[in-house]
């Protein structure tokens, strides 16, 4: 069936961009620059714990709870190092503030294979494009630094909108901004729950980016699964 799509919305992390190296490696390198030795594996484990605890205590980067997302992240970084046995607060503040800036740039992010070409082709075909991401307000800058921002009419982050995927309201906001009906829109992302199922719950089409061998949720028809981003055009143009 020919999909009459006008709008494509996109997740970012692990759909269009990915970290160049594991978080623990980036944190360990920054610590070394400040004369602090910590094993990357220890930092990766501590990060998962600190990030999880902070997300439960202050969801969506502390929006509406009096925290800035910068303070939210600085606290996560400091707690990551504390859990790994580093407690000198002065140096932790310096490390955390530097990491906050570094994760705002192409220094720590790289474009996934096929992403640039696919976005360009979609723009050339006349699709309107936007971003719907559970990200903090650095995202516009990250996309600009990675030379992807120009593809999109709008960038909706959970911090700006106040809702995180799978909440339907972040998708509804994208549809309102575009003045497009849900059935004229499709979302592309790598999470079954936050992207694929959430977009379908508001009546949008959806495509799940999933490398071969990743978890097989039975509800996803094969024609909705993208082994790579470059498979998208064939599916929306047939």
TrEMBL record:
<protein>
    <recommendedName>
        <fullName>Haloacid dehalogenase-like hydrolase domain-containing protein 3</fullName>
    </recommendedName>
</protein>
<dbReference type="InterPro" id="IPR036412">
    <property type="entry name" value="HAD-like_sf"/>
</dbReference>
<dbReference type="Pfam" id="PF00702">
    <property type="entry name" value="Hydrolase"/>
</dbReference>
<comment type="similarity">
    <text>Belongs to the HAD-like hydrolase superfamily.</text>
</comment>
<dbReference type="InterPro" id="IPR023214">
    <property type="entry name" value="HAD_sf"/>
</dbReference>
<dbReference type="InterPro" id="IPR006439">
    <property type="entry name" value="HAD-SF_hydro_IA"/>
</dbReference>
<dbReference type="GO" id="GO:0005634">
    <property type="term" value="C:nucleus"/>
</dbReference>
<dbReference type="InterPro" id="IPR011949">
    <property type="entry name" value="HAD-SF_hydro_IA_REG-2-like"/>
</dbReference>
<dbReference type="InterPro" id="IPR051828">
    <property type="entry name" value="HAD-like_hydrolase_domain"/>
</dbReference>
<dbReference type="InterPro" id="IPR044924">
    <property type="entry name" value="HAD-SF_hydro_IA_REG-2-like_cap"/>
</dbReference>
